[in-house]
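note to self — DONT lose this again. spent like an hour looking for the file last time. sequence + predicted structure for the chain T wanted, 333 res
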Amino acid sequence: MINSINLIILPIISFILTFLLTPLIMKFMIKIGKTGIDIHKLNKPMIPDMGGLSIILGILISAIVMYMLNELTAIVIASLLAALIAGIIGLLDDIFNLGGILKPVLTIFAFLPIWLMGTYSPHPALPFIPGTRLFIVYSLLLPFSIAVTANAVNMLDVINGATPLTTIPVFIALAVSGVLLGGRGIEVISMVAVASLIAFYYYNKYPARTFMGNAGDFFIGGLIGALAVTGRLEIVGIVALMPQIMNGFYILSSMKRLFEHRSVKDKPVKLREDGLLEASDNPKAPISLLRLLLMKSPEHEKDLATSFFILSLVSCVLAIITAYLTTIRLWGV
């Protein structure tokens, strides 16, 4: 049984750690020259990259405190290890540029802690369906669970504040759904992630003072996928991540191949002289969620971030409803 006091204390620890560590990491990245151009600004400022490392540290240190408080369950340990592997792959990509094929292939192996520790069930909880036995199908899909969510979150990180704004609702949905479906400890680590993302958003919101970096994106995306699998919240996770999943589908279907975004010359959106973003009219440019939002009219980057948040919020409300309907099926309440 989770101590309700710890459900408050642990997120506070995560928030404070991330908030204090982010400026230190920003200074270090500037010192070593690890910066990136904010392409959606007229003055093209150089922004310190890989700020999301503070999120990884904030969550992992909070997990150590969870262990000391005897709150760290096996499924949380497996989920964190899977997310950490994904984050390390993202870190390697930040440093060495792994490419558009090797990077997603490597993330497939992030599922190993979940598989080795046996913290999954081939009986996903589904609404309206009495029972599921998907031993073979589930085993075949499991290796892709972390890879899909990690890459999907990373692909939507295209404007200031995108990752925090689109994943904070997802972790809240996982926390609420976890409570509805029996807990298993994922509600605590989900709220720890929420607190860390809120702290990081202060530095990543428009105009961003630091970028998330692939390490942060992959860790966060990997953690979402891992918690969905270990918490038997696979369908809830899919519904909550619908903006990210659709964005990835649009991009890959229009490009018809795996690719590295740095190598794409035809960008899906372009910056106007008045500072607004508009959809590219180049037929060779990939279709993305951002481009679709701009089809009607040009918008400011800050407004687009709000649109991303609203889309994620709607998806996550639907995810919680899905969890509630599943609860009715499981417990008859």
